Amino acid sequence: MNEDQYEGPVPRRRRRRKLRIGRLFFTILFIAFIVAGLYSYFQYKEGKALAKGNAIDPGPFQGDVIDPQNPSVENYLLLGIDDDGSGKSRTDTMMVLSWNKQEGSIRLVSFMRDIYADIPGYKSYKLNTAYYLNGVQTVKDTITGMFGIPIHHYAIVDFDNFESIIDAAFPEGIEINVQKEMSEKIGVTLMPGKQRLNGKELLGYARFRADAEGDFGRVARQQEVMNAVKDEVVRPGMLLHIPKLSGALSGFVKTDLTSKDEISKAFTLLMKGKSDLETMTVPVEGTYQFNSYSHAGSVIELDVEKNKEALAAFLDLELE
Questions:
Q1: Which of 11, 70, 162, 271 is the most buried (most CB within 10 A)?
Q2: In this structure, how many other beta carbons lie within 10 angstroms of the beta carbon of residue 10?
Q3: pLDDT tens digits for 191-238?
Q4: How far is CA 231 from the centre of its chain?
Q5: Closest CA to 310 of 291, 283, 272, 290
Q6: Residues near 207 by Cβ (< 8 Å), separated by ≥ 6?
Q7: Nearest to 97 by CA among 129, 67, 73, 130
Q8: With the CA atoms of 63, 64, 66 and 69 taken in that order, what torsion angle do they form, in degrees rounded to the nearest 10?
Q9: What is the rounded distance in angstroms from the CA atom of residue 111 to the CA atom of residue 93?
């Protein structure tokens, strides 16, 4: 019989070698999972520890039911609050983020805080007073009532916590091209030029309004910051900071979402990070005037219907 045609059993030594290589591979893989799990756990705990004593109480919230005719769209009310020293907070930042999961698009609407608003159950005041009067539900009802925007969820961050979130998530800062020197009433001094800003500096940049643009310039910078943060989350190495960020957000940010929902939705949005962020500001140009009232101070009075039409076109809403 020709030796080349012999098909006998594989020698035991070769089998043992294959078994050892297989065991080694699975052992390394198992250890890697354990190490990654422990790293994530301790990073999460470290982030969570940052948020001790930073509780936010926005009151009860009842969001709108998602439209069965358009189930891929979810709208999130995003609020940045600031304690005025009385123990109660006003909303310095008010945005609605609209996420179309089917299209993969993200649209962001910013509302000027001085809009003269019809607040349900109260006199008309500035829009940023709604939260002060009765929490997040009143803000939601005011925006939905005036502009016809359904709001399904909310997320609130205290500006005192914003700095810690940025520093935890982005240790190297966020890249911003500062257009002018800024220092008045923001607690930092920023000089012109492209640079990476830490949490305190980024908050100062977003809140600066001591120039001719006033609140309109500040809203534009807030939208710029949102875009910069969105771009930063897809940078290489960001994955290492996700566990610590998740822990910090669980304490720093108040939302109606459960932890499981938060992680799932945040991960999906991160994966959409390269999508363009379309932005809009209310009121739109040519639809407002300035006025003043003894009980509300200087306000922005707007043509509600024209702004409602512009919002419907931007967010693909059906006008009632």
A1: 162
A2: 8
A3: 999 999 999 999 999 999 888 888 899 999 999 998 888 888 777 666
A4: 12
A5: 283
A6: 92, 159, 186, 218
A7: 73
A8: -170
A9: 8
With bands split at pLDDT 50, 70 and 90, how would you rate the model's confidence at 119? very high
Write the DSSP string, the chain: --GGG---PPPHHHHHHHHHHHHHHHHHHHHHHHHHHHHHHHHHHHHHHHTTT---------PPPPPTTSTTEEEEEEEEEEE-SSS-EEEEEEEEEEEETTTTEEEEEEE-TTBEE--TTS--EETTHHHHHHHHHHHHHHHHHHH-----EEEEEEHHHHHHHHHHH-TT-EEEEE-S-B-TTTSS-B-SEEEEE-HHHHHHHHH---STTHHHHHHHHHHHHHHHHHHHTTSTTGGGGHHHHHHHHHHHEEESS-HHHHHHHHHHHHHTTTS-EEEEEESPTTSEEEEEETTTEEEEEE-HHHHHHHHHHHHTPPP-
Domain boundary assignment for the chain: 10-50, 73-315
| Phi, psi (degrees; rounded to nearest 5) at 300 | -110, 115
What CATH class does 73-315 carry? alpha beta
Query: Which CA distances in Å does 270 have to 116, 248, 255, 273, 314?
Result: 35, 17, 18, 5, 23
Mean pLDDT of 303-314: 96
Minimal CA–CA distance to 114: which of 286, 293, 301, 299? Answer: 299
How many residues can be counted in the chain? 320
Gap between the Cα atoms of 298 and 264, Å rounded: 42
Question: Are the beta carbons of 204 and 186 closer than 8 angstroms?
Answer: yes
Give the confidence band of 294 by pLDDT, cuts at 50, 70, 90. Answer: very high
Share above pLDDT 70 across residues of the chain, in percent, rounded to a whole number: 71
In a 13 Å sphere around the CA of 177, the CA atoms on its Cβ side amount to: 1
